[in-house]
Design a protein that fits this description.
9 helices, mainly alpha, about 200 residues
Length: about 200
């Protein structure tokens, strides 16, 4: 028992990091404020991750989803089967090579994800409107510096650099800088409402 308590104490010391505390505060106030959509809340996390990946990689092959999610192709097949039964994605063979199986969002799946993102965008827009004219450039500059350093660190760790689909970028009001759509895992956790207000 004593050993478990010590392990917990060591873990909790990390919350003293200023960056971590600031990020948690921002994420809780922006990404976790909306109630979960019932149809999305019913999805297990693994299915949620694949669903968002299908959105960001339209018509990709099963192999590509397997590599991106770092799971076996058989796992992707099982997850896809369940999402197909829910009517959220469709599976089809490549027109030029029948051996290739691809996934795409169904109309229902597309509507669901668009609705969830509209909720997030509405929240961010409301927060942006509350910032003063002098505060907005400072906020963007700070976030871009943090994002650049974090991406560089990711590459230095030997991980693949993050990329975004050009058509999935929306504009920040009154600036020319784009906001990428939410990352799969972060958006999934937000929709499922796994973080409760204390």
């Amino acid at each position: 028992m004593k050993k478990t308590k010590n392990a917990k104490t060591r873990c909790c010391k990390h919350t003293d990091l200023p960056l971590e505390r600031a990020l948690i505060r921002v994420v809780r106030a922006t990404m976790f404020v909306q109630p979960p959509l019932p149809e999305m809340d019913a999805l297990p996390m693994a299915q949620m991750r694949l669903l968002w990946m299908v959105y960001h990689m339209p018509q990709a092959t099963m192999k590509e989803f397997s590599e991106k999610l770092e799971v076996s192709q058989s796992t992707v097949t099982q997850l896809a089967d369940r999402l197909i039964r829910r009517g959220l994605i469709v599976r089809f063979h490549d027109s030029k090579d029948r051996r290739l199986v691809r996934l795409s969002l169904s109309e229902q799946g597309h509507r669901l994800l668009e609705e969830s993102m509209e909720q997030m965008h509405a929240t961010l827009q409301a927060i942006w409107n509350r910032l003063g004219e002098e505060e907005r450039p400072k906020v963007i500059e700070g976030l871009e510096i943090l994002g650049r350093v974090a991406e560089q660190f990711r590459v230095e760790q030997g991980r693949a650099p993050l990329t975004w689909r050009e058509e999935s970028l929306s504009k920040i009001p009154e600036t020319s800088e784009p906001i990428p759509q939410p990352m799969v895992d972060l958006m999934a956790r937000r929709i499922r409402g796994n973080v409760r207000e204390s």
